[in-house]
């Protein structure tokens, strides 16, 4: 039994290490005024993942936004689910998490090639070889997650929370679902054009994954369906710092995610 437990722990942690998708999943996305926001934080792939407890490693910067209001979210080491937010605002509430810097060691180029191609970088391995980088190398990465929760009302707008890589709804995605909504992608507060964004949706166990490219104004249009949970994500891969403090990372990836659930 001990051996089996060890194998389960090993397989779940290695799964966490190799799949960077990181998202917030509130137990309830639409709350009444006196309810607490309870939300799990997950690492995995395609809406399937391992829930992580609260720790400083993953929660460097943690806030709740509503219009011009901002509230620092406190957490305790080991909290599970990770987020328990007692004070909320009327209307749209945006949970924001920025992680610490993390690192992954690649032994060989295959996994890096699969990952980079999946995220829209078809020729990155060729660039890696042209730079004479070794096959065994380190990648640094940071995660930027948002989640949209409503309290008593669907009124309000999304907020630019000033993260390095960020998805922003230019239109409220919880109302007027017959109209398409614009989803913007920003890097360092500037629009990111012609960049891949994926949208995963879950409705009655029906899973769907679609890919989009931002236009020359940095956004794409999407029709949200009612009573459906969404995970929107995009990854930007840039040159690593190659410095000692970052384990001589050759590449640095930034992961942005956004979760929401449309009302019934």
Description:
The protein has 264 residues and is mainly beta. Helix content is 12%, strand content 46%. A hairpin with a 2-residue loop joins strand 12 (181-187) and strand 13. It is globular. The chain has helices at residues 2-18, 110-118, 124-130; strands at 21-26, 30-31, 37-45, 48-52, 61-66, 69-72, 83-85, 91-98, 102-107, 136-151, 165-169, 181-187, 190-191, 196-203, 206-213, 219-222, 229-239, 251-261. It is built from 3 helices and 18 strands. Strands 2, 5, 6, 8, 9, 10, 14, 15, 17 and 18 form a 10-stranded mixed sheet that branches.
Q: Could you provide a short overview of the structure?
A:
With 264 residues, the chain is mainly beta.
What are its keywords?
4-stranded antiparallel β-sheet; mainly beta; 10-stranded mixed β-sheet
Number of strands: 18
Q: Span between N and C termini?
A: 45 Å
Poorly predicted ranges: 4-17
Spatial shape: globular
Major sheet attributes:
10 strands, mixed
User: How many alpha or pi helices?
Assistant: 3
| Class derived from helix and strand content | mainly beta
Give the secondary structure arrangement, pairings included.
Layout: H1 2-18, E1 21-26, E2 30-31, E3 37-45, E4 48-52, E5 61-66, E6 69-72, E7 83-85, E8 91-98, E9 102-107, H2 110-118, H3 124-130, E10 136-151, E11 165-169, E12 181-187, E13 190-191, E14 196-203, E15 206-213, E16 219-222, E17 229-239, E18 251-261
């Amino acid at each position: 039994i001990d051996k089996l437990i060890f194998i389960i722990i090993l397989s779940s942690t290695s799964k966490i290490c190799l799949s960077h998708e990181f998202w917030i999943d509130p137990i309830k996305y639409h709350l009444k005024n006196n309810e607490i926001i309870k939300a799990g934080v997950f690492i995995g792939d395609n809406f399937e993942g391992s829930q992580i407890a609260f720790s400083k490693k993953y929660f460097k910067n943690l806030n709740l936004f509503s219009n011009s209001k901002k509230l620092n979210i406190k957490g305790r080491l080991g909290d599970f689910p990770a987020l328990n937010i007692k004070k909320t605002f009327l209307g749209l509430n945006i949970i924001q998490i920025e992680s610490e810097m993390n690192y992954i060691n690649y032994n060989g180029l295959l996994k890096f090639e699969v990952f980079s191609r999946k995220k829209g970088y078809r020729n990155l391995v060729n660039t890696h070889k042209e730079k004479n980088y070794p096959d065994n190398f380190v990648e640094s990465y940071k995660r930027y997650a948002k989640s949209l929760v409503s309290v008593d009302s669907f009124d309000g707008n999304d907020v630019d929370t000033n993260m390095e890589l960020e998805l922003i709804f230019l239109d409220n995605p919880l109302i007027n679902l017959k109209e398409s909504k614009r989803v913007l992608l920003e890097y360092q507060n500037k629009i990111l054009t012609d960049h891949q964004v994926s949208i995963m949706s879950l409705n009655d166990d029906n899973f769907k994954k679609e890919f989009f490219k931002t236009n020359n104004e940095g956004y794409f249009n999407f029709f949200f369906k009612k009573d459906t949970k969404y995970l929107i994500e995009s990854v930007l891969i840039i040159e690593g710092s190659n410095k000692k403090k970052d384990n001589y990372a050759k590449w640095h990836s930034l992961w942005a995610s956004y979760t929401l659930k449309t009302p019934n």
